[in-house]
């Protein structure tokens, strides 16, 4: 007979295995079910313990259940996996559909949280720091990015998995859980917009070489525009590209990039751009 201490050891081992497996969530991503196969692979240790001695039909049903469509931000997948593992243990067999219902319901909120706070904010900041060093020829750049990324993402994934398993659905159904999620999402959106705005100013460069003479004075158009509104051309170009991408659902992204390159070269040859 298994004691509670032995059971706890088994569960901790499962959690560690699932954590390492969850890092392969994107390895088998496809356009049919997105991350479903990676999600199933992550929860296999728990399914083996719960269904290892069950009839074949029950095992097949459990496998199919976790191969349903799934797609979220991989950096914050830990809590969803932990909650799924806890619900697999706690729910009756005729209530197992609720596991996938909850998992599906959490995809969107966690995807928004991970995209805004991590993928679109923290990671670009780390990339900009590392890229600055790499452009200067410093080999520490890519190494620094890997270290910063690992120090940030791995603890979030590991702690998220453990917290998700310990708290189960309580982590989000409780009032505090909802408030925390909303606050983090809002904070991520605000910081993300600030980072995107600063990247436009620092990385998008458009300077005109047009000058004209009035009497004995030579007026530089670029200096005049900078006096009115610095970085006006980068701002207009960014807004224009954003409008085109939104209008065409990013289908013509490659065409837009190539067109910008061609137009930029032509304007430079004509002496319009510096």
Automatic annotation (TrEMBL):
Q: Which organism is it from?
A: Candidatus Enterococcus testudinis
What PROSITE patterns does the database record attribute to this sequence?
PTS_EIID (PS51108)
Keyword Zinc-finger applies: no
Taxonomic lineage from the root: Bacteria, Bacillati, Bacillota, Bacilli, Lactobacillales
Q: What is the name of the protein in this document?
A: PTS system mannose/fructose/sorbose-specific IID component
Q: Which GO terms describe its cellular component?
A: plasma membrane
Biological processes per GO annotation: phosphoenolpyruvate-dependent sugar phosphotransferase system
- Taxonomic superkingdom: Bacteria
The record lists the membrane-crossing segments as 106-127, 139-156, 190-208, 228-245, 252-273
Sorted alphabetically, the keyword list is: Membrane, Transmembrane, Transmembrane helix
């Amino acid at each position: 007979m298994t004691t509670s201490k032995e059971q706890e050891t088994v569960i901790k081992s499962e959690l560690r295995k699932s954590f390492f497996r969850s890092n392969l969530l994107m390895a088998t991503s496809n356009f049919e079910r997105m991350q479903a196969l990676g999600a199933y692979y992550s929860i296999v240790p728990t399914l083996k313990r719960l269904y290892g001695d069950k009839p074949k039909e029950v095992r097949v049903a459990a496998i199919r259940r976790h191969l349903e469509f799934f797609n979220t931000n991989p950096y914050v997948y830990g809590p969803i996996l932990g909650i799924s593992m806890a619900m697999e243990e706690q729910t009756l067999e005729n209530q197992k559909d609720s596991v996938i219902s909850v998992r599906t319901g959490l995809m969107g909120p966690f995807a928004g949280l991970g995209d805004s706070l991590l993928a679109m904010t923290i990671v670009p900041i780390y990339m900009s720091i590392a890229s600055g060093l790499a452009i200067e020829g410093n080999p520490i750049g890519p190494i620094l990015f890997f270290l910063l990324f690992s120090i940030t993402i791995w603890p979030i994934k590991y702690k998220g998995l453990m917290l998700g398993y310990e708290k189960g659905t309580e982590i989000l159904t409780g009032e505090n859980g909802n408030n925390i999620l909303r606050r983090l999402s809002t904070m991520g959106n605000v910081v993300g917009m600030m980072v995107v705005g600063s990247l436009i100013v620092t990385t998008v460069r458009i300077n005109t070489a047009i000058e004209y003479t009035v009497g004995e004075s030579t007026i530089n158009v670029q200096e005049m525009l900078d006096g009115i509104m610095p970085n006006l051309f980068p701002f207009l170009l960014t807004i224009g590209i954003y409008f085109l991408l939104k209008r065409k659902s990013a289908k013509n992204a490659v065409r837009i990039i190539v067109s910008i390159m061609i137009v930029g070269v032509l304007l430079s040859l004509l002496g319009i751009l510096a």
